[in-house]
Amino acid sequence: MPGAGRRPDAADREQLRIGGRSVAWVPPLILLVAIAVLDWNTSGEFRIISWIVLVPGIAAAICGVWGTAVFAVLAVLTYVTVDTSWPHQYQTGLPDFILVAAGGVLATLACAVRVRGERHMLHMRDVVETTRRAVLRPLPPGWGDLDHAAAYLAADSEARVGGDFYDIQPGPSGTRVLLGDVQGKGLGAVDVAAALLGTFRESAYHESSLTTVAARLETRMLRHVEYCAAVGQTDGDRFATGVLVGFTDDDRDTVEVINFGHDPPLVVGPDGVRSLPPGDGLPLGLSELVPEPPPVLRVPLGPGETLLLVTDGVTEARDGDGEFFPLLDRVSEALAADPGAIEPRRLVRLVRDGTLRHSGGHLGDDTTIFAVRRRAAGPEAHQPVSNR
Predict the structure, then answer these.
(1) Which of 175, 225, 167 lies closest to 199 in space, CA to CA?
(2) CA 388 to CA 370: how far, in whole Å?
(3) DSSP three-state, residue 195
(4) What is the mean pLDDT of residues 371-386?
(5) CA neighbor of 332 nearest in space, from 277, 278, 268
(6) What is the pTM of this model?
(7) Angle between helix 65-84 and helix 94-135 axes, rounded to 10 deg
(8) What is the pLDDT of residues 175-200, one digit of tens each?
């Protein structure tokens, strides 16, 4: 990650550590000593010194290449020392010596392959993390004069990035918020999300009208689909649902909302929880189906009220009986029990934990929870909620 500390390289990273120090050498060393001692204390008819071939094999799984090579050499030396200490008629001889020596060489080679694979895996994880941060950039506390918190849970825990997207963009005409969900999964969905976010960050800053921002997003979606078709990357009709919110500077008690076929946001405040009107807009990329652009809804948002925006990973999360997650009911119950739950960070944590419990931790789709509200004077900084 840019700006982060150096990630340990696979070549010098070992899997067993205590107090920051590697103890990966301990298990193979104990095994080596145990085999030598047991062999020394057994009868000549039951020799186990050839089992020492297991030592470099164990080292290959948990130590580095040089550590494995050292144990391979120690295994051969120990074998020779212990075996020659027996009378000639009880010595295992050349065949087992070849077995131990060949086993050490093969274990060292296997360790080199393992380390190379780990290095490649760590590199790919860095690439994925950099891609995730490029699509879902970190938002500083108070960005756009908004308190905010977010949790993003990718359905593919290895990929860690999917088709959900969100962002906040302040500008001369106020602060705009976007949350959306690209139809489909995989790298194609990530590509669409990146394209839409790039357009949002520019148009939300420069355009004075939220309707114009929405039009630019629709145009970008259509252009992206056209480009993908031209280069043969089509994998079905692409579209994206989303919610575009405008916080204007001249009216702090009202927000503008354009809904592109997405679940309407919830307003969580001291007086309870209510759902915003769904709006009549179609998802981005389907403008040819209707002659009119989606309408702009102007809805009241009082002091202290928080907008809660989620993707369908929340609303369509199912329990063991196939029941959907009751988002509105759960938030209402939590607010009745604790009025402080309207704070964005606590609200996001509440919904995230509730969704995971309801689904048993098995998410069928990418899941994003995003909460924003106007920042009061002198608030404490709120950090995004950890996904762990």
Answers:
(1) 167
(2) 16
(3) helix
(4) 63
(5) 268
(6) 0.70
(7) 160
(8) 999 999 988 776 778 888 889 999 99
